[in-house]
């Protein structure tokens, strides 16, 4: 899938689905100041993957994006394939299927998988999106204050807690979109990318994206 196609997924999906999800006016979500530093730490150039930012076309100042504080969207390519990596800094997350259905895809949720990325164990949610001309797999997870949130119910409970007490948080949704590959190949490409990415994120920011490192945590408790 070319870069223009990925732009359509981002722009069309956000605009069409989020207008429907967030119709009522509300104050703009504000995250912790460190969140921008986390997003800025995501490099365009990795060991095997080279990226191009494609988020500049999204006007997050629009009233339909009041739930959203920032977005990072990068199209990465390597000899193993290409993918779209999106990070949303938001106060309220929605199912990716809303985006894809808004631009004409049919979707189905597949069983989650657990990936281990250099000591970080992540429960990855998987969505299959398809239409006659295109088939994609999306792998996504939510991390709130350095903890991967395994279910949507838990995410909503945390969201309610922070809202009730007017507390700021670092809440990020990471999503990888890979098209024109079968599930197992897409998953292998995603894991290869995440291993490379994790090695290039500054240590101080890693847990905000990947959650707690089980190896480090185990060593500290010995």
Describe the 3D structure:
- The protein is an alpha+beta fold and about 220 residues long.
- The chain has one domain.
- It has helices spanning about 5-20, 35-40, 95-100, 150-165, 185-200, 205-210, 215-220; strands at about 50-55, 70-80, 80-90, 105-115, 120-130, 135-145, 145-150, 170-180.
- Strands 1, 2, 3, 4, 5, 6, 7 and 8 form an 8-stranded antiparallel β-sheet that branches.
- Helix 1 (about 5-20) crosses helix 3.
- The longest helix has 19 residues, at about 5-20.
- It is globular and about 45 Å long.
- Mean pLDDT is about 80; it is low at about 15-30 and about 220.
Keywords:
7 helices; globular; 8-stranded antiparallel beta sheet; single chain; disordered C terminus; 8 strands; 222 residues; alpha+beta
Summarize the structure.
The protein has 222 residues and is an alpha+beta fold. It has one domain (3-220). The chain has helices at 3-21, 34-40, 96-102, 152-164, 183-200, 203-210, 214-220, and strands spanning 50-53, 68-78, 81-90, 106-117, 120-131, 134-144, 147-149, 171-179.
Helix and strand arrangement:
Layout: H1 3-21, H2 34-40, E1 50-53, E2 68-78, E3 81-90, H3 96-102, E4 106-117, E5 120-131, E6 134-144, E7 147-149, H4 152-164, E8 171-179, H5 183-200, H6 203-210, H7 214-220
Antiparallel strand pairs: 1-2, 2-3, 3-8, 4-5, 5-6, 6-7, 6-8
Helix pairs in contact: 1-3
